[in-house]
Amino acid sequence: MNVSGFEFCSDPFLEDYDAFDPFSSYEPYDVCKVGTGLQVGRIGGFDCAASIAIMLGGIYLPRSQEPDRCTEVNSQLPDSGPGFYTYGPDFHRYGQPGVIDLLLQTAAAWIEDHPGLEIGYGDISLLYGGAFTGHNGHRLGLEVDVRPLRTDAANAIVFITDPEYDRDATNALIQFFLDFNSGLIRTIIFGDSSIAGVNLDTSGVHNNHFHGSFFSGVNCR
Q: What pTM value is reported for the model?
């Protein structure tokens, strides 16, 4: 494919960066530039002959992977608020605004009937989403990790195998999540087989948190 003109990759997810190497790969975006009359082949290791295309700088360039970053992932969950606390780095807690609002509303409604039992919110997504080390998902601001509840009501980690794990309270929280967000929540993944309504994970990964995934009204792809 011959391309006329000289173009740097023009991409909304790169606008916050003052400079980047146009011959390098910005994960998960492939970054390249083309010159007048240049035959687009392999540029800096980027397979420009791949079948998927993306518009960069007003021209179409094939690229090797589908984009999964999203400018809608721009709302940060506060460190704490009515009915919830957070754990982990604050830059891990970006989501789509609608999802952040749901998390705030869920916690505020929960604490009214369960005083002293705050919800512990953890990882959601990085700013603008994209690949998130340690997670297969959490790319589009639609997923959240939530701690199980403890018998001592402490705002701390607990595993489902620990004596401090409060199965009844955690079950109540998960059922509340499902009911309060009915039609808005896609799945909840958890490691406790005794809790109804969850997708069971027997790997042990979800033994110290459950993973909620919301539907989105925003098409990031």
A: 0.69
Give residue 8's identity as a one-letter amino acid code. F
**Pairing label, strands 25-26, 84-86:** unpaired
In this predicted structure, the answer to whether residue 51 has a pLDDT above a threshold of 90 is no
User: Per-residue pLDDT tens for 26-45?
Assistant: 333 343 444 333 333 333 33
| Phi, psi (rounded to 5 degrees) for 202 | -95, 5
State both tokens at 204: 């042990």
Fold of 75-214: Muramoyl-pentapeptide Carboxypeptidase; domain 2 (3.30.1380)
Residue 128 has which token pair?
């603008």
Question: Which residues partner with 59 through β-bridges?
Answer: 56
- What distance in Å separates the CA atoms of residue 208 and residue 204, rounded to the nearest whole number? 8
Place of tokens 């997810």: 13
Residue recorded with tokens 């035959």: 39
pLDDT averaged over the chain? 75
- Residue 111 pLDDT exceeds 90: yes
User: Please, what's the largest Cα pairwise distance for the chain?
Assistant: 69
What pLDDT score does 217 carry? 60
The full set of domain ranges for the chain reads: 2-63, 75-214
What residue type is 190 in one-letter code?
A: F
- Nearest by Cα to 198 from 206, 183, 187, 182: 187
| Amino acid symbol at 29 | Y
CA separation, residue 163 to residues 66, 136, 167, 196, 198 (Å): 45, 29, 10, 21, 22
